[in-house]
Amino acid sequence: MSGRSNARKQPKVKEKVIIDENNPMLRAFQAYAKELDAKHDRYERIVKLSRDITIEAKRIIFLLHSIDSRKGNKDKVLEEAQQRLEKVIKVNFKAVAQELQNLDPYQYRGAYAPGLQEFIEAYSFMEYMRYADDNQTSMSDWQQLQGKMQYTEAETNDEISAEMKEHKLSFHVEPSEYILGISDLSGELMRRCINSLGSGETDTCLLICKVLQHLYKGYIGLSIPRCRELSRKIHTMRQSVLKAEDVCYNVKVRGGEAAKWGLESEKPNVDIDEGFF
């Protein structure tokens, strides 16, 4: 009995597994692992670049809201905003274009889309503030923005030759991302409308309300396949239109005293079905 118990207690000796480093299957999976690691690292770098773009775009939007006719600072603010937006194009988006060089940009769309939409919002808001007083409400389309995001880099042909050669690359501006970015402009226009009411610029309130109505009318007729964000953005845009209309209602009814009364305390009726939802 004792012999049997001792035999049971003895641990089993595991056979040493010999891995063939030259096995083609093993080499293939090692190559896949390196490729996935490189893709994940690149994705994280693009996320960080997109976050920097988002932060700078928000700061530029905040700067544009500081335009006040009573201070006469419009030209100064617009010039600074223009320079900062151009810097974002030349530095931040160029860095993203370098990361996506010779790659499918749609694989990394989730990484750079938030920054791109925020930039488009800031850029279109800058254009509106520049041309609104001249009754020019047109803005750059996605192709014009695409044209601004073309870059050239100098590189040598080989390690021995010192001859420099220009290499072209670009950042891809997807039309659907442009549409989503422009839809966010409605929120900034609504805030500008409310701020204009507080400063007594009632004509600006009426003008912005018309622009928002025109913008919303165009968006409810859009149909973009595989774009789940669109319906949510249009719903948000509708709230902005209702708030701007409420401001204009105050202007029409109360006239010069509208700024003292501000917006109505009651929320607008958001349950009205306009046939879109």
Automatic annotation (TrEMBL):
UniProt xrefs under PANTHER family: TRANSLIN AND TRANSLIN ASSOCIATED PROTEIN X (PTHR10741)
Family in the record: Belongs to the translin family.
Entries under InterPro entries matching the protein: Translin_C, Translin_fam, Translin_N, Translin_sf
Annotated Gene Ontology cellular component terms: cytoplasm; nucleus
Keyword line: Cytoplasm, Magnesium, Metal-binding, Nucleus
Keyword Transmembrane attached: no
Superkingdom: Eukaryota
Binding-site residues, Mg(2+): 121, 188
Record bears the keyword Transport: no
GO molecular function: metal ion binding; sequence-specific DNA binding
Identification of the protein by name: Translin-associated protein X
Location in the cell: Cytoplasm; Nucleus
One family name in Pfam for this protein: Translin
